[in-house]
Amino acid sequence: MTLMLHKGAEPIDYAGLRQLVTPPPTPTHVPIPHYRLVDLVRHTLAYYGHQVVAEQHGITQDGMRYFGLMNLSSHDGAYEDAVVLRSSHDKTLPVGLGFGGHVFCCDNLSMYADTVVHRRHTAKLKKDLPGIIMEMVEPLADVRDAQQRVFNRYRATPLSPEMADHTLLELFRQQVFPSKLLASVNQEFYDPSFDEMRQQPLNCWRLFNSVTFVLTGSILAAPKATSTLHQVLDGVCARIAAGPREGGQSRALVA
């Protein structure tokens, strides 16, 4: 896989993570070794029956911020479920655990759910972290099922060119991507870079992957982008399923 974990992060293997020096603790801040977070998440996923089939890790050049991706075995042939991790030693990132999808053909990542530990890195957090990770992972099976239903709905929802254009503009208005990327998303939707997407009809699944492909390298830094993306597309799916309304199509796509 060549998935970009995060802009500015460099790839590193697990052995490399174990070689990194963790800053010494202070009275108010106790850094958690990056590999320790990986170990906890990997063990907890296995405990709840989730099989990790691939891992990627990335750190910033100074080793202070960590980003990770664990792909899970999935029954769907088009994508794998993915767990993303993040943490930092410099207080810029809380410990975070997210869940999303990794689409094979375009190697892009999207976020479906994201949870952060809103606690300072103290000795108590270090002690409590195993239990916290278990609480995060325990509901994952239900979340995976929910994501599968969402992706199936996107595949089943056709988009006319007019509706696609309305949706693209709404995504821009909702700040899913900046204006400089609007043309790139539009191009990727109508003329995809990958054969698998060209074979898809114009539908929400194709638009979803167009956006996440263009945002490659930004998803882990801004997980709310795909949260808003889901919100907009879910609204579009609901409106199309409900059929045309009297008086024509509404400009507002998000309730």
Quick summary of this structure?
With 255 residues, this protein is of the alpha+beta class.
Protein described:
With 255 residues, the chain is an alpha+beta fold. It has 2 domains: 10-139, no CATH class; 157-242, no CATH class. The chain is 42% helix and 18% strand. A 6-stranded antiparallel sheet has the order 1-2-3-4-5-6. β2 (52-59) and β3 (65-72) form a beta hairpin. α8 packs antiparallel against α9 (224-242). The longest helix is centred in the C-terminal third of the chain and has 19 residues, at 224-242. The protein is elongated, with a radius of gyration of 19 Å. The two termini are 38 Å apart. The model has no long low-confidence stretch (mean pLDDT 84).
Query: What oligomeric arrangement do these chains adopt?
Result: single chain
What is the helix/strand order?
Answer: EHHEEEEEHHHHHHH
| Stretches with pLDDT under 50, minimum 5 residues | none
Please state the CA-atom Rg, rounded to the nearest Å. 19 Å
| Number of strand elements | 6
Main sheet attributes: strand count, strand direction, barrel closure: 6 strands, antiparallel
**Fraction of residues in helix:** 40-55%
For the largest sheet, list the strands in their spatial order: 1-2-3-4-5-6
* Beginning-to-end CA distance, first to last residue: 38 Å
By helix and strand content, what is the structural category?
Answer: alpha+beta
Average pLDDT confidence is 84
β-sheet strand percentage? 15-25%
Output the number of helix runs: 9
- Backbone shape: elongated
Overall domain count = 2
